[in-house]
Every structure is written in C-alpha cells, then in structure tokens.
Known about the structure:
Elements: E1 3-9, E2 19-20, H1 21-24, H2 33-42, E3 51-55, E4 68-72, H3 75-85, H4 90-104, H5 107-117, H6 121-128, H7 132-139
Antiparallel strand pairs: 1-3, 1-4, 2-3
Amino acid sequence: MADDAYLFLLADRWPRLGAALAAVGALECAETPAVRGWLQAHGVAVSSEQVRILPSEEAVLIPEDAERLPVPLSTEEAIRVHQECAPRSVTDLEAELLDFRDMTQGWEALVHRALTAGVPAPRIAQLTGLDPQEIGRLTQT
C-alpha cells in the first residue's frame, strides 16, 4: 500500500472538501498509532466533521496551512473514499430532499402522540431537533 489518501483538518472558514472520515466507514489506517497520535495531537475525534479525507490525486485542493497526514488504503477502502468524495448529482440530492419531506410529513401527529403518551415537550425537542416553540404551539391547539 502506498499513500493513497490524505487525512486533513478542515477549519470552519474553508469550504467543505473531501469527505468526513466517519462517513467513509471503517478504515484500517484509522486504527494505526500514527493516525491515532495525529488525531490526539490535534485534539479531534475520528468522528469529527473537521477530520476529512481526500484521495492523494486531489491533495492539491487541501489548503496549504491545513494539518495533513498521508495514509495508505486498501483497494476497497480507496474505492469507498473516491465514492464518498465524488460530487453528488442534483437528481440524487433532490431525491434525498423528497425522502426527507416524506419522513417529516407526519411530524405533528408524532409529536401529538408523544405528548399524549407523557413525553415532556423539552425531551421531544431534544430528541427531534424541533424548535421548542413549535412543540409549544402544538400543545395549544
């Protein structure tokens, strides 16, 4: 295995590049002392959105002042990294938005059922990410 990809830390001020390491799935290199030490030295967890990965041929996109670490990948891992870093088509994103709409269409009924079952409104807000005022509005109707 060669250095097939680069891990790097993405600062908030930079546009989203590559893929979040956690989105790619388990990689052998993530379990190595080198990667664990690098993450620990920078005070970030492997699950952080700041920890990104790019195939080595796209390393020119990584900002010069970004902390980076070359890592080896197996053939299967390299394919996953390439797929996760590939631009998504508008059609795929629109399909995801439609799925989201379908999943969230019955949210009011679900919240009513939860309130009726005795789940406190603050807990519903915490679990769903809904605005507590929206939940409060439902309790008044």
